[in-house]
Amino acid sequence: MKAFYQDFKLGIVGGGQLGRMLLQFCPNFNVHACVLDPSADGPCSGLANEYTQGSLQDYDTVYAFGKQVDLLTIEIENINIDALYQLEREGLPVYPQPRVIEIIQDKRIQKQFYLDNGIPTADFILVDNRADIEAHADFLPAFNKLGKGGYDGGGVQSLTGKADLARAFDDYGLLEKTVDLQSEISVIAARSSRGEIAVFPAVECIFHPEYNLVDYLIAPSSLAAEVLAQAEELAKRLIESLDVVGLLAVEMFVSKDGEVLINEVAPRPHNSGHQTINANDTSQYEQLLRAIFGLPLGSTAINKPSAMVNLLGEEGYTGPAIYEGLDRLLEIDGANIFLYGKKITKPHRKMGHITILGNDMETLKEKVQLVKKAIKVLA
Prior knowledge:
There is one protein chain. The chain has helices at residues 17-23, 59-66, 81-89, 98-105, 107-116, 130-135, 225-242, 276-279, 284-292, 326-330, 361-374, and strands at 9-13, 32-37, 50-53, 71-74, 124-127, 142-146, 156-159, 173-177, 181-191, 197-199, 203-207, 214-219, 246-255, 260-266, 306-312, 319-320, 322-324, 335-339, 344-345, 350-357, 376-378. The chain is an alpha+beta fold and 379 residues long. It has three domains: 9-94, Rossmann fold (3-Layer(aba) Sandwich); 123-177, ATP-grasp fold, A domain (Dna Ligase, domain 1); 181-378, ATP-grasp fold, B domain (D-amino Acid Aminotransferase, Chain A, domain 1). β1, α1 (17-23) and β2 form a beta-alpha-beta unit.
């Protein structure tokens, strides 16, 4: 691999907000960053050294983009996998590896991987259509998940009983048994091309009651130390089992009896790691660069307790984004805003996030409510 001068080209497939934040760390490594995204004016468009508009699903587009760079990474999994395999065969380092992305693109294959490798996860049944789901009505309550294509809370339906069967997807997917939850947590693990592993402390995720999206998170989680140790060890075990080079965000359920179960994973930066930019020794974005470049991984230690609030488009507003209350927000001590450069807002669309630093959990939770009242995304 070339030394880290401006002639080193990093390719990033996907130009959304995760890519945007990754780009902000590339100059620290003298990396020339190239981005491929289907949108002409995506969040990365104003920051990338080179920005290519093109379909992530088209073989020729992805392949041609990869031939122009020295190393390829991703910020979204929904990519033409055949092009990635061909680039890898021709000697291009692709991290995470195509075989990892292929497993994670399909929730059915992902779940089967957990089962085959003794990774604890909620009970599940594979289904091909609504008729299959109706035949397994005695398995409810459960979540019906599409095998492919679900993202940011989409592709998931809660089925509590037979009365909900009409809402089930008439498509390839699975039924996942509902867990009696104590909490939902996330652990981000990193594994370098040299095999070194580092794990960020677990964070606690609080979901919006209607949108099936994280409303806010608290870092570190306040769960019992033995539960958190189990979660972090499970994340290490999983990133090793998958043999990932890069990041693996591991979303987990903690049942009321303290059992830790894998929900889903993402082989890239993740919404549950945004607060690391302000609150940890090393951010998830810098850690990704260290991992794929084969450099020593950074400390994941938390310097200060933090919260992260997702800034979503308000219900009933679609159009050019207007940020109302920015002054009030920035008057809140410890609040740091990250806007994603999306010109158009829609209901529930992720438009930015706010990281809040504090000295204790009680103060942080109070500030979360102040932040949520202070700023709105309208049109």
